[in-house]
C-alpha cells in the first residue's frame, strides 16, 4: 500500500526500548468513525459526505473478509461460515434500507486509509479541523475489535487535490488494553506483509 501523506511523529531518541512499541506505525485501511467530542453521537457528523450504498457494502464486508484472510483454512469447512455470510447479507440489507428511508440519521464507520500507531492516528478527512480540536474516535481493528478513544488534532492541512484535509491526531484517552490491541494489530500486520513479500520473491 502506498504510504499516506499523514505521518505521525518519529521516535524520539530518548524513548526507552520498552516504550518504542507505542511508536510503531503502519499505513492501513480500517473502519473509522470520528466527530468533535462536542457533537451529538446520535446523528451524522456535520461536513461528512452522506453514507452511500457502496460505503455500507464495504463496511459490512470488511470484518468478514479480514477474518477469512487470517483464518480461511480453519473456517473453510466450518458450519458457522454460511451463518456469518447470512448475517452479513441481512445486516447489509437492513443498513441499506435505513439509508434510503432515513438518510439524515444514518452514519456508520467507513473504510478509511489511515496511518496508525499506539500514540495516534492520521487520516484524510472531508472536514477541516483546527489544531487542538478533540475528536471522539472509533476504530474497528480486524477482524472486529472496537477501540473507542479521544484524540487531539495536532495538524490539519489541505491536501493537494483541495477536496480533503490531512489530519494527524494524538490519542488522549486510550486505555492500556486498547493501546495493546492497536500495537498487536500493527505487529501482526507488519509480520503478515513481510511474509507476503518473502513469498512473492521466493
UniProtKB/TrEMBL annotation:
Residues 108-187 form the PilZ domain. InterPro entries: PilZ_domain (IPR009875). This is PilZ domain-containing protein. GO terms for molecular function: cyclic-di-GMP binding. It comes from Nitrospira moscoviensis. Pfam families: PilZ. It comes from the Bacteria.
Amino acid at each position: 500500500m502506498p504510504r499516506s501523506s499523514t505521518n505521525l511523529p518519529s521516535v524520539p531518541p530518548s524513548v526507552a526500548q520498552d516504550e518504542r512499541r507505542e511508536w510503531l506505525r503502519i499505513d492501513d485501511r480500517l473502519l473509522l468513525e470520528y466527530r468533535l467530542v462536542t457533537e451529538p453521537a446520535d446523528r451524522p457528523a456535520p461536513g461528512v459526505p452522506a453514507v452511500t450504498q457502496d460505503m455500507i457494502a464495504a463496511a459490512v464486508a470488511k470484518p468478514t473478509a479480514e477474518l477469512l484472510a487470517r483464518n480461511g483454512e480453519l473456517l473453510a469447512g466450518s458450519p458457522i461460515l454460511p451463518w456469518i455470510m447470512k448475517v452479513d447479507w441481512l445486516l447489509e440489507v437492513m443498513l441499506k434500507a435505513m439509508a434510503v428511508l432515513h438518510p439524515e440519521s444514518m452514519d456508520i464507520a467507513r473504510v478509511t486509509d489511515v496511518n496508525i500507531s499506539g500514540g495516534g492516528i492520521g487520516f484524510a478527512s472531508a472536514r477541516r479541523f483546527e489544531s487542538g480540536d478533540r475528536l471522539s474516535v472509533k476504530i474497528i481493528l480486524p477482524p472486529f475489535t472496537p477501540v473507542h478513544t479521544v484524540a487531539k488534532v495536532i495538524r490539519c492541512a489541505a491536501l493537494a487535490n483541495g477536496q480533503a484535509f490531512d489530519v494527524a491526531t494524538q490519542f488522549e484517552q486510550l486505555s492500556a488494553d486498547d493501546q495493546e490491541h492497536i500495537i498487536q494489530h500493527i505487529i501482526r500486520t507488519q509480520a503478515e506483509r513481510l511474509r507476503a513479500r518473502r513469498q512473492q520473491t521466493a
